[in-house]
Design goal:
By secondary structure, the protein is of the alpha/beta class. The protein is built from 15 helices and 32 strands. The strands form six sheets. The chain has an eight-stranded parallel β-barrel, surrounded by five helices. A hairpin with a 4-residue loop joins strand 31 (617-624) and strand 32 (629-634).
Length: 660
């Protein structure tokens, strides 16, 4: 990928979804392999990934495979073998977290730094570039200014002046992990987010108490974030230096990937039209048979998080479910139906739609429609729910109703919803031997076919050229669309359709073969020599070092003290299980900085610890106001601690004695 190219990077739960991501405009797709992919139920066989790679490479799109869990010593050999299998399958890059992989015999494939490597500073980003990472996934919490500072630290975006320059990748859409690095699930359940098995403690409801034991929030999802949506910030993100735009969602369904990929394809294409100095990272243009709309998919409402600075409305505190969009309000509740007046009289409610509303405790209640009937009155619908009416708490006249599943929309995306074609020029030339057809695509590849024999004059000269052009333009189910058909003939000619079709098919086959032969995998970046020093000489458990190869890597780069990952069970006391830019104090308007300058309040609000309580679970919130961060503090559960780690490790807990 070149510095002036923009890459739309889409997720895939499986190969079929990945293929549709490519068809809907993805320049690259990331997908999990059979193991080590940080999503326990999103694994895929190597042969499926090979099929996806073959399809993607037809459009010069690339395939990245996630190998971003932390690894035990006994897993390194399996990871090495898998890396080679993926390389042979045509994969373009591996997304990694564990630096131990850089110390084993990997194939010559690009390595990308996962967001799990916690890239927040220019120093960390520069180190990973110097260590040989070709693309680095920035922390979601960064502001535009912080992204620009990281971009500057990597040097000029110029292939000639800075050939080892890493590409900056940034999440632009999807679910947000509240933590910089999620350890909390292992402490409480033994399920490690770093091992691909997050228990999503962030989506639970909590009671929040202050330092004096007073309840300041009850049954609120105070760690649950709204979903990321950077649609309105893309131009500024590009200006800050980002070149790869990542959509979250390896658990998401086909409709989500189709819709969100198409949405960002449209937005990025608009920017490319404005800025001729930029280009797409792959080939072809997409035609969509639907109107992309992020609101139609599951979402917790949207936020642009910290890109434009800290904001008060980033949390989905009332519910982690999909609230949908308002469509009307209840006018009548019957024995087996609900009557709804739509806000827009043109609204159509369908059988199978999903509706929802908030009860008196502001909990979201879902209502699936079994049958919907128009009453004949303007905008009034009578819906018959799938479940019994007495199961719908606080459903009453005047309640606002949202729709969070539109079956008409869902059915539309179950069909073929996009076509992706590469532009091509066709040239038909008369030679001494007969006819020669050359097909040249937008990337400069060509395919040629000949039709020997004497040519016949056309019986209707006025229509001859038009018929030839029309026939040659019928590229059907190929990946091509005609940009122009040039004729270089010695007069009006007639060519039987069967012969012209065969000529066109052969030329297109040769072009496809030329494209396949020209495909090349981008080279692995070369680490600088001597090894670049790591920005710090001490690593805590937060560095996620879980095998001796990772320890060797950091030692080679100047680290003197290396603690083992939290999963090794060496940290038995209270530690920061989660560190986050999200601040519960700020969200509850209890931040000292918010009180600054307020008469009668200034100085009385302090960043004292708080408690989070969910059932028997109790966690402490501590606030570090200088970097404006919150720590969720706790200790490993005895039941988890007693379950000895499969592969315990221990590294340098103190500095080695200086040599005399």
């Amino acid at each position: 990928m070149l510095p002036h190219q923009l890459e739309l990077l889409a997720p895939a739960r499986d190969a079929a979804i990945g293929i549709e991501a490519v068809n809907h405009g993805a320049d690259a797709v990331y997908i999990g392999g059979p193991s080590f992919g940080a999503r326990t139920s999103a694994d895929n066989p190597v042969q499926d990934i090979a099929r996806l790679a073959a399809h993607a490479h037809r459009f010069n799109s690339r395939i990245f495979v996630t190998m971003n869990t932390i690894l035990r010593d006994d897993e390194l050999e399996s990871a090495r073998q898998l890396a080679w299998q993926l390389y042979d399958a045509g994969v373009d890059a591996l997304i990694i977290q564990d630096m131990g992989l850089l110390e084993i015999d990997l194939p010559p494939i690009q390595l990308h730094a996962s967001t799990q490597t916690d890239i927040r500073t220019p120093q960390k980003a520069r180190f990973l570039q110097d260590a040989g990472l070709s693309q680095i996934v920035l922390a979601r919490e960064l502001t535009l200014q912080q992204i620009a500072a990281i971009d500057a630290a990597l040097g000029p975006q110029d292939e000639a002046l800075n050939p080892g320059r890493a590409i900056l990748e940034f999440f632009v859409h999807g679910a947000l992990c509240v933590a910089y690095s999620g350890h909390i699930s292992h402490a409480h359940t033994g399920r490690s987010a770093n091992r691909g098995d997050c228990s999503q403690a962030c989506r639970l409801p909590y009671e929040v108490k202050d330092s004096q034991g007073r309840i300041v929030a009850h049954d609120k999802h105070v760690l649950s974030m709204k979903d990321n949506n950077q649609s309105n910030n893309l131009r500024q993100i590009i200006d800050a230096g980002v070149r790869s735009f990542k959509i979250e969602g390896r658990y998401k369904d086909m409709a989500y990937v189709k819709n969100i990929t198409a949405h960002y394809r449209v937005l990025l294409d608009e920017i490319l039209q404005e800025r001729p100095e930029l280009a797409r990272a792959s080939s072809g243009e997409c035609t969509f048979h639907f109107q992309p709309d992020p609101d139609q998919n599951f979402n917790r409402e949207f936020t642009d998080y910290f890109v434009q600075g800290r904001k008060e409305d980033i949390g989905a505190f009332d519910t982690p479910k999909n609230p949908g969009r308002p469509i009307g309000y209840v006018t009548q509740v019957g024995p087996n139906f609900v009557e709804i007046e739509a806000d827009d009289p043109a609204t159509v409610i369908h059988n199978g739609d999903g509706l929802c509303y908030l009860d008196l405790q502001k909990e979201l209640v879902g209502l699936q429609i079994n049958r919907a009937e128009a009453t004949g009155k303007n905008g009034i619908w009578r819906v018959f729910p799938k479940d019994a009416m007495d199961s719908f708490k606080d459903l009453r006249k005047g309640v606002q109703v949202n729709r969070n599943r539109d079956m008409d929309w869902v059915r539309g995306l179950e069909k073929k919803s996009a076509e992706r074609r590469i532009g091509a020029w066709l040239a038909l030339e008369e030679t001494a031997e007969g006819l020669r057809l050359t097909v040249t695509d937008e990337d400069g590849h060509s395919g040629m076919a000949t039709l020997p024999g004497a040519l016949q004059d056309a019986k209707d000269p006025s229509q001859a050229d038009a018929k030839l052009r029309e026939n040659l333009s019928r590229l059907g189910d190929t990946l091509l669309q005609p940009l122009d058909v040039a004729l270089n003939l010695k007069g009006p000619r007639f060519v039987p359709a069967s012969q012209l079709n065969a000529l066109r098919r052969e030329a297109v086959e040769h072009l496809e073969a030329a494209r396949a032969a020209a495909w090349h995998r981008l080279p692995r970046a070369t680490p600088v020599a001597p090894p670049a020093p790591y920005p710090e000489d001490t690593l805590t458990y937060l560095a996620n070092v879980f095998n001796h190869k990772a320890s060797d890597f950091y030692a080679k780069h100047g680290v003197k003290v290396i603690a083992a990952a939290y999963e090794s069970h060496e940290e038995e006391g209270e530690v920061s299980l989660m560190i986050t830019k999200h601040c519960v104090r700020f969200s509850l308007s209890l931040c000292p900085k918010q009180a600054k300058g307020v008469t009668g309040v200034q100085g009385t609000v302090k960043a004292e610890p708080m408690q989070l309580i969910n059932g028997k679970e109790k966690l402490t919130l501590r606030f570090d106001c200088k970097p404006c961060e919150m720590h969720v503090v706790g200790k490993i559960k005895r039941s988890v601690l007693n379950a000895a780690p499969t592969s315990p490790v221990s590294f340098y807990k103190t500095r080695p004695a200086a040599k005399v």
